[in-house]
Every structure is written in C-alpha cells, then in structure tokens.
Amino acid sequence: MKATTTYSCMIVAACTLGPVLAKAADLPTVTMATTPEAMALGGLLVSRAESVGAMATNPAAFYLQGSELGRRFQLGAHQVTMPSPQSDDDSVTEFQGGFAVQNETLAWGGGIYSQGTYIADGRLASNPAQKTVYEQSVITFGAAMPVKQFMSLGFTLDAMDVTARNGEEEYSEDWGLSLGALITPEPGSVTLGGQTLGIGLQAGLSWSDEVRADAENVVSSIGRRDLLVRPATLRVGLEPALFWLSGSLSSRLRFPVQAERRDYTSLQDFYLGAAAQSFTVDVWSVGAEWEWTTAGSPWSIALRGGTAVESADLPVFNEVKRVSVGLAINYGPHNFALGSQADDRDGKQASFAYQYWF
User: What is the pTM of this model?
Assistant: First the structure.
C-alpha cells in the first residue's frame, strides 16, 4: 500500500509539474521569524522561553515558569543572504526586537521580527512568470498565563507585512493567529560524593494559521491577486537537560529536538501552470547547548550548535539541509547572543541580539 501511494504521488507530481519543471525544484522559502538563540540551535525554540524572541516561535514563552517577576527587553538584527533571481547574491539586514512583562498571573508583550528576506512562493501579480524577491516582517502582540505550576498557555496576533523589493507592487498587511503551550516540570536532582547531578525536561507545542496578502492596485493577468505570506504551521519540541554541580563549577547540557510541519494550499502559489494540489513540508531539527559558570560569578557562557533537514511529500522538491552554530554570554541581567546558519543551496543567515532583564 505504501509503495502504491508513493508511486501515485510521483505520477500526480509528474503530471502537474512536468511541463513546469525541467529538474527538481528548490523547496519554497518561507523563513519563520527567528532570533540568534533559535538560529544557533537549528531553528529550535518552541520548548524554551528564556529569550524574548521565543515568542515568535511559541506564544507561551511570554510567561516563563519559575522566573523572577519583571520585564525582559531584547534588541538585535537579522541578516539573510540567498541566491537571488535578480542578482548573483542578495543580502538584507533588518532590526528586530521585543519585550515581555510578567506578573504572578499574566505575561504580555510584543515584538517586531524579520520573517526572512525571500519568499519563493511569490509571483508578481502583474507578471506571474517573473520571479522576484520579497521582504517580509511580522509585528507580534500577545499574552500568556500559567496553568498549575508547570505549564503556560499563550497566543499572539501577528501583523504580517510583505513587499516586493523591485518596488512594482505593494501588498496588504494581513493578520494571523498563533497559539502555544509550554510545559516545564520541576527538575529532579541527586547528590553523590559531593557532586550534584540533575535532569530536567521541557516541552512545547505551537500552531500558526495560514496568512495571505492581497496585491493592492494591481490587475493580474491571470486573476490571482494574493500571495502566500505564511503557511499553516505546527511545531512540537522536547528539550531534555542534564545538570552538574562540582565544587565551584556549574554546567548544564541541553539537547532540544523539534518537528515542524507546514501545510501549503496549492502548488499554484509557486509555479505557473501547476495544478491546485496541496502538499506539506516537514522540518526535523536537533541541537545541543553546553553552558557553564562558576559559583559567585555573574558570568556564564553557552556554546550552541544544531542541524535541520527540510523535505516535502512531493518528490519533485529537493531536500534542504542546514547547519548552525552560536554563542551566548551572560553577565547578571545582561545577555548577548550570536547565531549563524548555512544551508546546502547557498543560503546564509546571521543574527545577534542583546537582552536585558529588569
């Protein structure tokens, strides 16, 4: 049955995309809002809430269980460089940031984030055969609240903005919705021979709806006047952690894993002449972080790394592989984070951010 299903899928794909594609095509590039913490871990942040930027991946991250009440502020920049249909290479840097205010029963806040500079699922409404480059950003407003002492639930309203870089077209700003949950049970520990060992686990779940933007003041030659800005996206993440306290040295190892599924409504959003066939893209990510500090010191350092594989359920799309690295330095309430990512289709991203707790 599985072989028959796969064979049927290949026949449908060949019939719908055969006249359109002479060879396997790149996956649609719809980069979700990201921060250096997420980027350094292969795109993983759905099961973590320490960064204000986590709200862009999981709205429940507005409320951080077990943290001191107060405010968090983050400011940074995000650069995307990818091969462009308009030039050999194109790179854009955008500023991003956010804030969160947390009390005993509620946390709220907002932020503005780059959603990536390129949207491969876009075509000029006035000239659908011409590929172009789009800039995309999101302004997020949301809130979260605790449930029991180990879970938080949150939501965001996302104002999505997209513009064509060649300046020929403008698109309407449309709103989307994101929901999330974060589970942070109390970690366990044991003391053996003067050393303390512990284990912890965090889990996260988030969902974002599909958002489309309408072209303004444009008469399309084929009647299509909208652009897919964000596909419906589901993320599930787990993050086990190991703690070790030996003398004055304290260290922590974390190993986040995440699965992401994006549902695309129609191939027509990407290729002129294709059938109105839906498809899905799955992203599997794993990461690792090693953080250490000494007793009485306000300093701590964390090294991060990750990898991700992105593939579609249609065999006409190429698989995409990504690797990433990053660094975080903490000094009391101050945090500085760096992240860098590269993929096998010559795409590169870099991000840095400063966060302050007060």
Answer: 0.86
